[in-house]
Write a structure and sequence with these properties.
Blueprint: H1 5-12, E1 16-17, E2 22-23, E3 30-35, E4 40-47, H2 54-67, E5 74-81, H3 84-93, E6 107-114, H4 122-135, E7 140-144, H5 152-156, E8 173-175, E9 179-182, H6 199-211, E10 218-224, H7 230-239, E11 244-249, H8 253-268, E12 272-284, E13 290-291, H9 298-306, E14 310-316, H10 318-326, H11 330-333, H12 338-353
Parallel strand pairs: 4-5, 6-10, 6-11, 7-9, 7-10, 11-12, 12-14
Antiparallel strand pairs: 1-2, 3-4, 8-9, 12-13
Helix pairs in contact: 4-12, 6-7, 8-9
The structure holds adenosine-5'-triphosphate and magnesium ion (MG).
């Protein structure tokens, strides 16, 4: 006997959307379902965003669940896109609550420092740019969005347990004359404790960092992204559609290609790219000889391709690594060092590239990219 439409629908209820935290039938994502007399099944699922990584997860799950039903002769899965109005309806059906306003109300610019590729210097640049911005008279904070490979506390030399304010907001730690810092490390018992978190928990953690931390008045909230592209950008896009990206690359074509993909992901979620920083661009010996260890030109090529400014080219300098290991950003320890000079240049470029400094950010809901609810950080109260 051929499978029935009801049986297929019941099987589809087993396919959950991790971002909405509900199944695709309840979420209203099943656009159409047809079952022929001979048992040919065709399911059309609507995606929230073009190129959504959820598509492959849906397809796999649908094939597994519907394919297991008796009487399925053939199974076709295809996708279309929700309209803006449908997205709003879907998000209303999802379990997500609207983000509370307030925690970021006085933050003027949110800048995500990302690269796609690991180890190119995102964290080092984030820590030093925060310090350089403060030295330039701005208020700045560094948020460590790398919950696995957190490194901001070590690089800024800031450790400890944040206090909770009267209105139950978490107070960032403050270091080096005013840099505010926040990291998952502050909430772990042992400093070397491994954090093994799955996607939904990650969304929740980032969300709590943005919504439950008393950031106060800030010109710049710099967000140190983990390597890779997807998850975190999506959460940020949803919570802070006004946030911008600084893309870090090395001069190498390989790194530049990966960085380009990170930029494309950001743009897919309508996040603006403020500029590119090339890191590890050459090594200058004490006698002034320059070696282009990681090649040349990647930053310029990438900024041309993305049509955004090249904010700076930071040379390889051992002192930059040593100072990061010791917890004092090089721009503070030795402002005249070549890498510091390049970092100050990049910080000033960033200031120039973010002119709307008085436009106060408000967390605005992007119902089309909704993170899940229900997992609490160890920090809550
Ligand atoms: N220009 C530089 N000169 C010398 N050392 C550097 C430079 N940039 C980064 N480093 C060092 O390289 C190492 C990797 O840098 P960092 O941790 O900032 O990279 P990342 O992109 O944040 O890595 P991950 O992807 O793992 O988060 C660090 O030890 C850092 O101090
Ligand atoms: Mg890092």
């Amino acid at each position: 006997m051929a499978v029935t439409e009801d049986q297929v629908r019941a099987a589809l209820r087993g396919v959950t959307d991790t971002e909405l935290g509900t199944d695709i039938v309840d979420a209203g994502l099943v656009r159409s379902l047809s079952v022929s007399a001979g048992g040919d099944v065709h399911v059309v699922v609507s995606l929230l965003a073009p190129g959504s990584p959820a598509a492959s997860h849906y397809e796999r799950d649908i094939r597994e669940r519907v394919g297991a039903l008796a009487g399925v002769a053939d199974l076709a899965v295809s996708f279309d896109l929700l309209s803006a109005e449908e997205k709003r309806a879907v998000s209303a059906r999802g379990k997500r609550a609207a983000p509370p306003e307030g925690a970021l109300a006085k933050v003027r610019n949110v800048i995500c420092v990302g690269s796609g590729k690991g180890g190119v210097g995102k964290s080092t640049l984030t820590a030093n740019l925060a310090a350089a911005l403060v030295a330039e008279g701005k208020t700045a904070a560094a948020l460590d969005a790398d919950v696995w490979g957190y490194s901001i506390p070590r690089m800024l030399g800031v450790h400890g347990k944040p206090k909770v304010s009267e209105n139950k907001r978490i107070l960032p730690l403050v270091v080096h004359g005013g840099i505010k810092a926040m990291s998952i490390e502050f909430f772990l018992e042992g400093r070397d404790q491994a954090v093994v978190w799955r996607g939904p928990m990650l969304h929740k953690a980032i969300r709590q960092f943005l919504e439950d931390v008393e950031w106060g008045e800030l010109d710049y909230l710099l967000i140190d992204l983990p390597p890779g592209t997807g998850d975190v950008s999506m959460t940020l896009a949803q919570l802070l559609p006004q946030s911008r990206f600084v893309i870090v690359t090395t001069p190498q074509p390989a790194a530049q290609q990966v960085a380009k993909r990170a930029a494309e992901t950001a743009r897919r979620f309508d996040l603006e790219i403020a500029g590119v920083i090339e890191n590890m661009s050459g090594f200058v010996t004490p006698t002034g000889e320059r070696y282009t260890i990681f090649g040349e030109g990647g930053g310029q090529t990438l900024s041309d391709e993305l049509d955004v400014p090249l904010l700076g080219k930071i040379p390889l300098q051992e002192e930059l690594r040593v100072s990061a290991d010791n917890g004092t950003p090089l721009v503070l320890e030795d402002p005249d060092a070549p890498a510091s000079q390049a970092l100050f240049h990049a910080a000033r470029g960033l200031i120039a590239a973010t002119p709307q400094q008085l436009a106060v950010l408000q967390p605005a809901a992007r119902p089309d990219i909704a993170p899940p609810s229900g997992v609490a950080l160890p920090m809550a109260q």
